[in-house]
Write a structure and sequence with these properties.
The structure is a homodimer.
Chain A (H helix, E strand, L loop, with lengths): L2 H11 L3 E5 L16 H13 L5 E5 H5 L3 H13 L5 E8 L3 H14 L4 E4 L5 H8 L5 E7 L19 H9 L8 E5 L7 H7 L4 E4 L9 H8 L6 E5 L1 H4 L7 H19 L5 H4 L1
Parallel strand pairs in A: 1-2, 1-8, 2-3, 3-4, 4-5, 5-6, 6-7, 7-8
Chain lengths: ~280, ~280
């Protein structure tokens, strides 16, 4: 999916919501657990119910890998099921030396048809470039994450004055254009958002941490939105586990619709690219 | 596998070689390509031939993920095939928020029976702890990697004086004991090795980058070996692609035997734990 297409979907649907499919067999509704294809069936119903309210789905690869070969198969099938109208993210946090990153890129962009994959920056440019070589595919690089552990290394102060995460965003935004590179910025770090937007004014940010992790949608949107939106805000547990009952998909849709209603308020009437 | 068992294998076999199974369908010998189970068959023959000369195998998950569901199945089967006498590493470079890292740990330690998994440090303590909670399982954290991109972030100087990678090793060596935590230190960084050994004097280091990437086994061993060895040195391409002919397994064994012969010279006669 191109950036223009993504922006068009956001302004048409008046939503920049990404629904995170962190599907855990222990947390799906009781009535589904005896289903022969329970995880996929859960995902299918969540996707069907939430499509109108979101522009993206994010599959957390860990939850599928934990189920072994069968889990990988369900992940591939879920990715196939998500329609082309929605931006498909593999939240995989991969990254290795060049020849190995190239294999990861093939896994998510060729073997499966994801639009984007999340990548960890630690190993530097040559670990990230193989992902950036794919046309109309996206690399989403960890910037500042939503967890407490962000303080351990990401927030360390460098001799030059930047925090480590600032240097990551500053350097990497020269490696990939806003048409192919996004950054992960945790919603729990809202006080840093205005500063972070200055580091990469035109790149999209994928923002996890709204919902179960406590981030504030209004504050993020006010501090960090661009004229083209420039944000994908992810909610996982708050949406998909909104109810543990037979009405789980309907309840997930209600929560997603609630986010969409708020997002409609924060979004400009038109994108700058529509105006141009 | 416990540390004592690993050390015993090293001194009995007089080897601290890890063979990296970065198996690429495009690089396996021509005569195997029509085999209905070519990748597994290649791995099986490499393992059978190199067992006497190494103490560990490292499966590079990317190469299997690139093949889709079938690849994940071959990875699981290869891990099963490696005997309990050899330390099984999933070179996966995972790491995410706590509840997600816990799922990755389940994938590699429960769904598959790896002894160890490589983990990226960027997201800090709570992204690493879930791996450390498993008994007799190992977390191998990226310290200083072998690629050029190590200069981008790992080698940045912090305000406190350390390089980023030094701070990673210093902090993380307090999170996991030498019975459960190792660090990845690239062989191409041999000039840093004496200093790095001071940062974590008792932890094992997994050292990739010998062979195809050009690292020097003698220099690494001289600068960084402990009385219990404290090193696993990995070679991947140099061993498994030693020959593209029908003799590939025999040639792989020859290269592995060559490393073992050198390692026998660098290893002390007995480990300090045997003497104790």
């Amino acid at each position: 999916m191109t950036r223009a297409e993504l922006v068009r979907h956001i302004f048409q649907r008046r939503s920049y919501l990404c629904v995170g499919l962190d599907t855990d067999p222990a947390k799906i509704p009781a009535h589904l657990r005896s289903h022969p294809d329970a995880i996929f069936e859960f995902n299918r119903q969540i996707i069907d119910a939430t499509l109108p309210y979101c522009v993206s789905y994010k599959i957390n690869t860990a939850f599928y890998e934990a189920l072994g070969v069968k889990g990988w198969e369900i992940m591939a099938r879920t990715a196939d099921y998500i329609p082309g109208s929605h931006f498909k993210i593999a939240d995989a946090k991969r990254g290795d030396i060049g020849n190995t990153s190239a294999q990861y890129a093939r896994a998510f962009f060729e073997s499966m048809n994801f639009d984007a994959v999340t990548v960890a920056p630690y190993m530097g440019a040559d670990s990230i470039r193989p992902f950036l070589e794919f046309t109309n595919k996206w690399t989403i690089l960890l910037g500042l994450t939503s967890n407490a552990g962000a303080a351990d290394f990401e927030m360390l102060k460098l001799a030059g004055g930047d925090h480590v995460y600032e240097q990551v965003i500053r350097k990497a935004s020269g490696w990939g254009s806003p048409e192919q590179l996004m950054f992960v910025i945790g919603a729990t770090k809202a006080e840093e958002f205005s500063n972070i937007r200055k580091l990469a004014p035109d790149h999209f940010y994928l923002v996890p941490g709204v919902g179960a992790q406590g981030g504030d949608l209004a504050e993020i949107s006010n501090r960090c939105m661009t004229s083209d939106c420039g944000l994908l805000v992810n909610a996982s547990r708050a949406v998909i586990y909104a109810s543990g009952g037979e009405d789980f998909a309907g309840q997930a849709a209600s929560v997603a619709a609630g986010y969409q209603k708020d997002m409609d308020i924060y979004l400009p009437a038109n994108s700058s690219s529509q105006l141009a």
